[in-house]
What does this fold into?
Amino acid sequence: MLLTLPGVLSPEEAAACRKTLLDARWDDGRITAGAQSALVKANLQLPEDAPAARQLGELILERLGRHAAFLAAALPQRVFPPLFNRYEAGMGFGDHIDNAVRIGGQPARRYRTDLSCTLFLSEPEDYDGGELVIDGAGSSSGVKLGAGDLLLYEASTVHRVTPVARGARLAAFFWVQSMVRDRGQRELLFDLDASIRGARAALGDAHPAAVRLTGTYHNLIRMWAEV
Ligand code: NI
It folds into this structure.
């Protein structure tokens, strides 16, 4: 799954986030990297317990909690408290794969990282480079979204952030533990959900076929979800 979710934050909210992050204290991004990815990681990161990280993270989680496409695609069981990074000129993050299990939050708990999220906070015209490239995504060119837009992709993929050549790239990044662990099942449910919306719009919510299809969706969730 590789999905762009535009407007998770409004441009004004993204601008307010940038303003808050401007005054924050940034650490070396290798604090959360494993031994292997530390070798290729060069960026700055907000400490997890930084007040700005908590405050902005809560805003993002609140928005995602009522974002229909995010909920349908990710089927989140829990979402890792967002982390924040900053790439300045010359910084990048080479090929790596995200850790399968991460510990975070208050109180601390384990999250299985089924899906990775990058929420872009800088406007694309404010920096060169800094593209997110995901192997096997069907395109060799990287992704660079507008401020407030989110990219949702499989955490099982090798990916990288190309070096920033000008300006600075600010983003939030975090992971989703999905109720449905299997990627194929999750994608099938996302397709089915879209089909049901189409059928309901065409036939009406009360049409017997629409009701049965909705039932099938929920019965598949019952079969596959871990809650
Ligand atoms: Ni990564």
Notes: Residues 96, 98, 159 surround nickel (II) ion (CB under 6 Å).
